[in-house]
Each structure stands twice: as C-alpha cells, then as structure tokens.
Amino acid sequence: MNEHELDLSEYEVQIDLAVEARELAGSPDSPIPGVWSETDKSGGIAVTRMHIQTDEGAQAIGKMKGHYVTLEVPLLRNGDTDLQDKVATTFAKEFESFLQRIGISRTASVFVVGLGNWNVTPDALGPLVVENIMVTRQFFELMPDQVSEGYRPVSAVAPGVLGTTGIESSDIVQGIVEKAKPELVIAIDALAARSLERVNTTIQIADTGIHPGSGIGNKRKGLTQDILGVPCIAIGVPTVVYASTIVNNTMDLVLQHMEKHTPNTDKLFGVFGTMEGNERLQLVKEVLEPMGHNLLVTPKEIDKFMEDTANVIASGLNAALHEAVDTDNVAAYTH
C-alpha cells in the first residue's frame, strides 16, 4: 500500500448504507464496474436503486452482491405528517417493486422480524414496526375459507437481543422459520450512519440479509438466505452516528464557512485544510478512541423520530404485502 493511501479496513463495520459505501468508493459520476445504480428525485424524496452484480463490484464498494433501494428524505425529521404519508406511499411502491424484482410472488407467506432492544430507544425500530404490522397468518391457519382476496399470510415477532434473552436473535428466528415455514423473511433493524444528514432521514431495503449490530462493531450471527433457507430482505434506518463523524462533519462545515470569508484558509487551518475527509476522520478517531470518547450519538428528539419512522415503515409494508390495502392511502393501515 502506498504510504499516502488511506486504509479504511478498520472502519468498514460502520458502512451500513450502500449509498455511503458507493460515495466512499468514488465520485457518483464515475461508474464502478459491476455496480449499476440510478437515482430519482421527486417531492423531497430521493430514491436510489443499486444492483451490485459482480464480485469485483462488491469488493470495490465493500457491500455484498445484491439489490439495494435507498430512500433519502432530508426533511423527514421535521414532523410533517403529509410528507410522512408520502414517504410511506413511496416506500410501499418501491418495496412492492423490489419483491417483484427478486421473484417473490404476491401470495408468498411472509415472516417479519423486528430486531433490536425495545428498552433502548435508538435500537427499538424493529419492535416498534412489528407492533404496527398487519398480522394475518392466524386467519389462514384457523379460518382460511373466510379470508378475503388481496391478503397473504403474514406473521411477526420481535425476538429481543442477546443481552436480554441469552439467545442469539438469529437462532430464535431460525427456529421459528423451521417451524412456521415462511417463504420470505423481512428483518428490520436500526443502523449507524457516516453522515449526520442521514440519521432518521434514510430508509434502506436490501436482499442481502442482515447482520445485527454490524454498524456499531458487534459481530452477531446474521440473518441471511444461507442461514435461514429462505430469502431475507433487510430494512434499516440509521438512528445513531459516531462522535468522530460529528467532529469531522463539523470541521467540514467550519472550513466551508471560512472559505466564504477569506480566499486563503491555510493560515487558519494549516494541514487540516488540505486533508481529505476520510483522512481527517481517521485522525479524529485516533484521538478519541483511546480515551473512550468515540461515543454513539443520537438526536434528543429520538423518541418522536422512532415512532414516526416506525409508522412510515409499518404502513408501507402493510400496503406492499397486501393487495387489498390501498397503496395511495397507507397511513390508514396502522393502529
């Protein structure tokens, strides 16, 4: 490795979002062999669809081969209910298209898993979504002749975390899958972001499964098709960011602000002004981590953010999974 080349290998655990991994790999205008992507923007919502097609593409951006869809909504944290309904509708349509793209039929039975710790607010996304999922499997089991057209068998569970149950979430889910035999697993979990702007404003869908806790450096057994024996779609929302990321982003903002007032910032910032963002991030982490100060940070309004985001995802899933649910009025289908 060149002495001036930055080794990001120790930071790969933080890259939960495919769009952030793509940004780190190079300019959005520069194509990466084996990686296809497109972005549509409308009404304050940016939808990025990405398909990592080859091993070379996967290695280039550090993500597994598969399909990824990311919704970015910068104003989602503002509490605008009309925007939330619009995001839920967009999510429902994108998720429905995602299911068709990977070959999941309209009648396939689905098992929704809400990962995370309901006692820790930034980690409670999964359990909160499960509370609002339209569960129907029991009707198909007990009274199948009375189920109306347009619904499919859906079950859901929040298995807790290893620290509270003593059992790996993956083992719990695997046991249920073996018994209930769903045709698709949907796993929902909180993620870690590399940028402040994406915390509680971004939703990612991926068909590569999920590894609980990967974004904060925990090596937990994953939920993947190889482990479960059925396709596993992951839905994630970044709810935390590292303190080092906040410091680095603040440095960027200060530099940008000062450049508006003086053409020469060298005297003010010296070598800091010439460093690349990732290089600066590495330096900040080297300073903070030995002191234990590279904390995971979440917004003070996280309670409200989590409730709103969980409702958006749950109502979107309800519409995407059941044809009888009006996709254009998804907000009406959460409790």
Automatic annotation (TrEMBL):
Keyword Ion transport in the entry? The reply is: no
* UniProt cross-references to InterPro entries, sorted A to Z: Pept_HybD-like_dom_sf (IPR023430), Peptidase_A25 (IPR005080)
Q: Catalyses which reaction? A: Endopeptidase action with P4 Glu or Asp, P1 preferably Glu > Asp, P1' hydrophobic and P2' Ala
| PTM comment, free text | Autoproteolytically processed. The inactive tetrameric zymogen termed p46 autoprocesses to a smaller form termed p41, which is active only during spore germination.
Molecular function via GO: metalloendopeptidase activity
Keyword line: Hydrolase, Protease, Zymogen
Is Magnesium among the key words of this record? no
**Which superkingdom is the protein from?**
Bacteria
Which family is this protein grouped under?
Belongs to the peptidase A25 family.
Job of this protein: Initiates the rapid degradation of small, acid-soluble proteins during spore germination.
Name the record gives this protein: Germination protease
- Record the organism: Cohnella fermenti
Gene assigned in the entry? gpr
